[in-house]
Amino acid sequence: MITGRTVLLCTLGALIPPLTPAPDLVPLLVLAVLLVLVVVDWLLAGNVGAVRCERRGATQTRLGEAATVTLLVTNGGRRTLRARIRDAWVPSAGASPYEHRVKIPAGDRRALETVLRPTRRGDRPAARVTIRSYGPLGLVFRQTWRRKATRLTPPWTVRVLPPFTSRRFLPEKLSRLRQLDGSLAVRGRGQGTEFDALREYVDGDDVRSIDWRATARRSTVVVRTWRPERDRRLVCVIDTGRTSAARVGDIPRLDAALDACLLLAAVAAKAGDRVDLLAVDTALRGSVSGASRNSVLPEMVQAMAPLEPRLVESNFGLMVSEVVRRERKRCLVVLFTAMEPSALADGLLPVLPQLTSKHTVILASVGDPTVTEMARRRGDTEAVYEAAAAERALGERRQIIGALRRRGVEVVDEPADIFPSKVADAYLELKAAGLL
Questions:
Q1: Cα–Cα distance between 158 and 57 in angstroms, integer?
Q2: pTM
Q3: For 373-394, what is the mean pLDDT?
Q4: 261 domain-assigned
Q5: What does residue 399 show for φ and ψ, rounded to 5 degrees?
Q6: Which of 418, 417, 424 has the alpha carbon at shortest distance from 175?
Q7: Stretch (H or E) spanning 172
Q8: Which of 115, 138, 161 is the C-terminal boundary of a domain?
Q9: Cβ distance 76 to 70 under 8 Å?
Q10: 3 state DSSP class of 164
Q11: Which of 76, 181, 234, 400 is the most exposed place for a label (fewest CB within 10 A)?
Q12: Is residue 81 within 8 Å of 46, Cβ to Cβ?
């Protein structure tokens, strides 16, 4: 293919004949010279087919962070490669720079760095490496076309993990957990059901906690102390159906649920509880089961990374049956879904007794403050109609929350900025009350 430089030379050559005594012969001479230059330039251009590419660098990063991937380009030809190389990725990978200009002698290698700043979670693959090789005069170039570019492109995928922005709440929650566990506060009988130790009786202790056998062996009255039970089971169920695609503020509802789930898992793992994960809509999209307390967060992050909302109606029956099938003993089930009255009334409420009869259930939903603000608007006719619609939506929301609580479900319905913190608080309150 010719370049713009060749076109420019042709244009300049067209201006010469009127200035010469032989205007009929000069154009042929100019074209002949230009054709010779183009052929020579093409012959001296580096051979694209002899180029080999490899990749090194990051294979994963967190959303909001940068990752660097290096493309190693080796010139296996006999001529110097003067080229523009584009290392293209999917748009959501946020790759830069757009292209690299290189000069690689025969048998030499260059390392071209591409910085990725992904804008979405999941697997971000490299798309295609395109090489445009120029001759030394810049009049013509050779280029890899689609089929050859596919063979030339080394496969590489960078997995973009959830950002876990709710980690800022973790120190506070761990401090509360230590208090519950007795590290910072005196433990009493009402704080758990797992025996911890014996100590001397003091005024204010519940007489029902006296250990009479131990008292008989000593000269003082001895009481039992208790702590919240460890090694309990926590199951996080994430709804990846159509309602999870809605954006609340700046992020999709699904991403807010994932962030809250990670905070909850971090606190529960520190408490010594076992955490499982299920992501379900009309099928099981991801799961983590039986992970140790040290590996549960890395495994959950890897399982969450490729999750995307599906534009389908969630099958709550499948969610419940998966939990019942996997969990034989009593556990805490935290269902992350949208507080959509019609979907919950028709899908969840009919199958909810299968869960609540055996397990403790928390339904966690990201609240949308826009609806509350809309309900307070007045001013003009349009605002009044919007306020009426918002009030109706809030009324239906209150009705479904009431129906859930009458069935023994704890409901967390908070804005996205404090949603992870409130979900963790609900878990800690249940743990403090010995209800897990």
A1: 9
A2: 0.79
A3: 83
A4: yes
A5: -65, -45
A6: 424
A7: helix 170-181
A8: 161
A9: no
A10: coil
A11: 76
A12: yes
369 within domain boundaries = yes
Cβ atoms of residues 197 and 97 within 8 Å: no
- Structural contact between residues 336 and 286, judged by C-beta atoms closer than 8 angstroms: no
In a domain, residue 99? The reply is yes
Q: Residue 250 has which token pair?
A: 């700046």
Which pLDDT does position 189 carry in this prediction?
43
Give the HSE-up count for residue 423: Cα atoms under 13 Å, Cβ half-sphere. 37
- List the CATH number of the domain containing 330: 3.40.50.410
Q: How far is CA 321 from the centre of its chain?
A: 26
| Shared domain check, 30 and 60 | no
Cα dihedral 354/356/359/360 (nearest 10): 160
Fill in the DSSP letter of residue 155.
P
Q: What DSSP character marks residue 244?
A: G
Whether the CB-CB separation of 67 and 122 falls below 8 Å is answered with no
Q: What is the extent of the structural domain holding 137?
A: 48-161
Q: Is the CB of residue 134 less than 8 Å from the CB of residue 45?
A: yes
Place of tokens 């199958």: 351
Do 145 and 259 have their domain in common? no
When pLDDT is cut at 50, 70 and 90, the band that residue 183 belongs to is: very low
The answer on 82 and 22 residing in a single domain is no
Does 33 have pLDDT greater than 70?
A: yes
Report the alpha-carbon distance of residue 148 to residue 165 in Å, rounded.
42
Mean pLDDT of the region 65-81: 92
Mean pLDDT across the chain? 86
pLDDT at 188: 43
Q: Say what percent of the chain tops pLDDT 90.
A: 50
Cα–Cα–Cα angle for 362, 364, 365, nearest 5°? Answer: 155
For the cut 50, the answer to whether the pLDDT of residue 427 exceeds it is: yes
Q: Residue 422: what pLDDT?
A: 95
In a domain, 347, yes or no: yes
Q: What is the mean pLDDT of residues 47-74?
A: 92
Q: Are residues 381 and 413 in the same domain?
A: yes
Q: How many domains does the chain have?
A: 3
Residue 293 and residue 345 share a domain: yes
Determine how many CB atoms are found less than 10 A away from the CB of residue 98: 10
118 and 20 share a domain? no
Q: Find the CATH number of the domain harbouring 122.
A: 2.60.40.10
> Is 37 in the same domain as 52?
no
Name the residue among 251, 255, 275, 257 with its Cα closest to residue 265: 275
Domain boundary among 44, 61, 76: 44
Task: Give the whole-angstrom CA distance, residue 179 versus residue 196.
Answer: 14
